Amino acid sequence: MIRFWAGAAVAAALAAAGCGGGGGGGGSVPDGAEIAPVSSVAFVSVSTDFSSAQWKQVTKLARRFPGTPQLIAEFKKQTKGLDFEQDIKPALGPEVDLVWFDAANNGNDVVGLTKPDTTAKLEALLQKSRSKGESKAVTAQVGDWVAISDSQAKLDRFKTAAAGDKLAGDKDFKQAFEKLDSDASVRAWISGKFVQSELDRGLATSGAPPRLSHDLGDLHAISAAAKAEDEGASFELDGLLDPTPDPGTFSPSLPGDVPSGALLYLSTTRLDTQLRTVLRLVGKSLPKFNTQLSQVEGVLGLSLENDIYPLLKDESALAVYPGAGQIPRILFLQKVDDETKADSLLRRFSAIAQLSGSIKAETVQLGGESVQKLTFTGTPVTLYDGTAKGKVFVTNASNLAEQTIGGPADSLADDPLYRSARDAAGIPGKVAAFAFSDVENGLPYVLRLAQQSGTVVPPAAFANAKPLDAAVVYLVKDGDGLRISGFQTIK
Questions:
Q1: Which of 142, 149, 444, 475 suits 434 as a labelling partner, its CA being 20 to 30 A distant?
Q2: Can you spell out the DSSP letters for 380-441?
Q3: What is the DSSP secondary structure assignment for residue 208, as one 8-state letter?
Q4: Which residues touch 83 (CB under 8 Å, ≥6 apart)?
Q5: What was the pLDDT predicted at 49?
Q6: Is 283 domain-assigned?
Q7: Cβ-contact 190, 41 below 8 angstroms
Q8: 392 Rama class: left (phi>0) / alpha (psi -120 to 50) / beta
Q9: pLDDT tens sequence across 135-178
Q10: Same domain, yes or no: 255 and 148
């Protein structure tokens, strides 16, 4: 039953798109958290107030996709004719919550919560779904709320757990939800302690020491929200950590140095710090790793501390462009303080790579400058690397190398699509990382590559990709945690 119940709540957006209606959010903490036990590991709250402005935005966006009517028809078919207006809408309260009261049974220990105007309307929906063979729903009254699950045993366990302290009183839960927009269509939370323990358990099976992830701090909670906007959909993901991370931040400048037309652009700073962290954790997991790493440094005549880390301390970026075949064109840029030292290091890398016998290294002229060309024997892969205008570049396309050296005639920073997506997302002046995707052209490109590899891609996939314009995601420090915010423009 729980799959039907969850499906009814989520599919309501599609159904409402075909029937009219709207919706919105509640307070800082969902009312259902006053019922959920404090021991819960995950909580999802869906606004089902179909008369509010947020739902009008949801239905407005849904109508832009040509596949929405088909999805509504499929939902009706799967539910054997259940009608949104007559059956579902009257049975749901202004909020539908899903509560995972533990993580046992492959995540199936979950109940649905709602507070309908009259329980008779909800029971009528459940009885209709039972008669159509769609569910084996059982219900229980918990205060003013109705708890729904697919077995009486789960409801009994839930009621027993809910007799004690409630999730709404948990400090980490409240703090996590207070970071979210209360008007969002969907808000979610997951226990940080649960996530971290599962992560450590997985790492331990690979030989890592116990509680390895705690070397980075204690994760208290993860929360997320999604909201319909005039120009598209926004989302955020928050993590509460102790101690609070202090990532390096930067004001993005490299979009002005890469050519326009990128399908994907990723940027961050302080890769040296990130690399140090990764190697430190690997060293703790593999006892011989640090010794072996020192030996490799000695053989190559390179030092992470003196050669590699200084090269990676400033802004870096990766841009992906469509290619002629199945291999996209890729450009990596790294701002450096000492261009001469960086160029010398690149040439040392090329010389070392050639010793393998499977890579041919040579110096060629591109854009009036000498660059290294690395040809991988027996493969279609060729790399070009060099320095220009205070940057290291590595690319598999000679034209991208030439534009980097001479400066692009049209840069990503001047691309109207990039600028409009960036403005819609509201990127702040300084970020720890950010990404841009030209979804309008990138998703069809990926679908065509899938077709070329033999995957059957229905025409509807291309049609439903058309409304997706561009997406921007960025990472910032937010008080005592980290926040990932994003925006998908929909035309």
A1: 444
A2: S-EEEEEEETTEEEEES-HHHHHHHHH--SSBGGG-HHHHHHHHHHT--S-BSEEEEE-HHH
A3: P
A4: 76
A5: 86
A6: no
A7: yes
A8: beta
A9: 578 888 888 899 999 889 999 999 999 899 999 999 999 999 99
A10: no
CB 333 within 8 A of CB 257: yes
Does a structural domain hold residue 318? yes
Q: Which of the listed residues 184, 214, 236 is the one where a domain comes to its end?
A: 184
Return the closest-CA partner of residue 217 out of 198, 192, 238.
192
Amino acid found at 460: A
Q: List the structure tokens of 460.
A: 């509807």
User: Residue 128 above 80 pLDDT?
Assistant: no
Among 142, 162, 184, which residue terminates a domain? 184
Instruction: Summarize pLDDT for 271-294 with one digit per residue, the tens.
Output: 999 999 999 999 999 989 999 999
Among 87, 95, 134, 111, smallest CA distance to 9 is for 95
Residues 143 and 254 placed together within one structural domain of the fold:
no
Structure tokens at 365: 């002229």
**Number of domains the chain contains:** 2
Q: Is the pLDDT of residue 9 over 50?
A: no
φ and ψ at residue 454, rounded to 5 degrees: 105, 0
Contacts by 174-177, CB closer than 8 A, 24 or more apart: 174/28, 174/29, 175/220, 175/221, 175/240, 176/220, 176/221, 176/222, 176/223, 176/238, 176/240, 177/28, 177/29, 177/30, 177/33, 177/223
Q: In 3D, which of 377, 353, 350 has the Cα closest to residue 364? A: 350
Q: Phi and psi (nearest 5°) for 364? A: -130, 165
Give the SS3 label for residue 206: coil
Distance CA 156, CA 37 (A): 13
Give the Cα separation of 316 and 432 in Å (integer).
11
Helix, strand, coil share (%) of the chain residues, nearest 5: 40, 25, 30
290-297: Cβ within 8 A, 24+ apart: none
Residue 311: phi, psi to the nearest 5? -75, -25
Q: CA–CA separation, 76 vs 7, rounded Å? A: 11
Domain-embedded: residue 305 = no
Query: Cα–chain-centroid distance for residue 319?
Result: 18
